[in-house]
Specification:
Blueprint lengths: L4 E4 L4 E7 L2 E8 L2 E4 L2 H4 L4 H6 L3 H7 L7 E2 L5 E2 L7 E4 L4 H15 L5 H18 L4 E4 L4 E3 L4 E3 L6 E2 L2 E7 L15 E8 L2 E2 L15 H5 L5 E3 L4 E2 L9 E6 L2 E7 L7 H9 L9 E3 L7 H4 L8 E6 L2 E10 L3
Parallel strand pairs: 7-19, 9-15, 10-21
Antiparallel strand pairs: 1-21, 2-3, 2-6, 3-4, 4-5, 7-8, 11-14, 12-13, 12-19, 13-16, 17-18, 17-20, 20-21
Length: 322
């Protein structure tokens, strides 16, 4: 069993935990957790609460007696139950510049590294000024708690990590403006968006396109949590994002590098289809993926992913049989 660290800065957060074999919604304050009843929540379930969250009600409960348990005594599950998962692509400046440089240097080895970088930076500046974010669609069934071992399918040896800040939608968002977008954000959590690199561009389809379905949606490929931290306690514009593999830092950046910020992402996503309470919107992953390090996930690896103010998730990798 993997234990979670309660190192979030907020006075309280939400989590889901295993309570005698059933998933229970819990209120976390410090290093303790207690189950929330529908009456205490003021809603029939988590997503109904997120549609119109009353955080003051929950904060008051942190001061009351109840059946509190030490956080280390419970197994935490994914803190959300999304109906939709959207994943923003190529949204960290340094990460995308690295990808562009790798592609350009292969295509024209006569160009110097400085020339390639200058071109990549120009492309990113233009995209930030007049471009728009794009998204992949993930399967909600891939959302699991970090307590679930990450089974690495045997059909590939290129399973990669992508630690991401994830937006949890509150009030339904349909065709919202960037100025109004944050009214529809209930909170934030951590997601590690696992990707099988050699399946992204299948060799048998030529230039038809990318296979994001198969490369990103194996069982358990979206370890999520441990906590859902209310938006009022989080400034998504400058959070440190760190992923360690077996104790060695591989990703270390801040969300200040986002090409498109949270309001822009929510707004653009909502113009195609409504975002509903509890849905997840992943904001992209910074530089330092396994593809960059030429080192992919292996049996026995341990990933520790932290985002400032949101806690730490620890995911253990095991060899898959399929």
């Amino acid at each position: 069993m993997t234990k979670m660290s309660a190192n979030f800065d907020a006075p309280f957060a939400l989590a889901r935990f295993d309570n005698g074999g059933r998933a229970a919604l819990g209120l976390v304050a410090g290093d303790r957790i207690r189950e929330l009843t529908p009456a205490e929540l003021g809603a029939e379930d988590l997503n109904a609460f997120l549609a119109s969250p009353d955080w003051d009600r929950l904060e008051a409960l942190t001061q009351q007696d109840g059946s509190w348990h030490p956080l280390d005594d419970v197994t935490l599950l994914a803190p959300v139950e999304p109906r939709e998962v959207l994943q923003a692509g190529a949204n960290y400046r340094t990460h995308v510049i690295q990808l562009i440089m790798a592609g350009l240097s292969k295509g024209d080895p006569s160009r110097s590294a400085d020339e390639v970088r200058a071109h990549a930076e120009k492309v990113m500046d233009a995209r930030a000024a007049s471009g728009r974010p794009f998204f992949f669609i993930g399967l909600p069934q891939c959302v699991v708690g970090a307590n679930v071992p990450l089974e690495l399918p045997s059909y590939s040896e290129t399973h990669d990590w992508e630690l991401e800040l994830a937006v949890v939608i509150g009030k339904r968002a349909a065709d919202v403006s960037p100025e109004d977008a944050m009214e529809h954000v209930a909170g934030y959590t951590i997601v590690n968006d696992i990707t099988t690199r050699d399946l992204v561009f299948p060799t048998d389809v030529g230039d038809i396109g990318a296979d994001w379905y198969r490369s990103k949606n194996a069982p358990g490929f979206l370890p999520t949590g441990p906590f859902l931290v209310p938006a009022q306690f989080v400034d998504p514009a400058n959070l440190r994002v760190v992923l360690e593999l077996n104790g060695e830092a591989k990703q270390d950046a801040t969300t200040a590098e986002l090409i498109f910020d949270v309001p822009s992402l929510v707004s653009v996503a909502s113009k195609t289809a409504p975002l509903n309470p509890g849905d997840l919107l992943l904001t992209g992953s910074p530089a330092g993926n396994g593809q960059h390090w030429k080192r992919f996930l292996q049996d026995g690896d341990v990933m520790s992913g932290s985002i400032e103010g949101l806690g730490t998730q620890v995911v253990r990798c095991v060899a898959g049989s399929r």
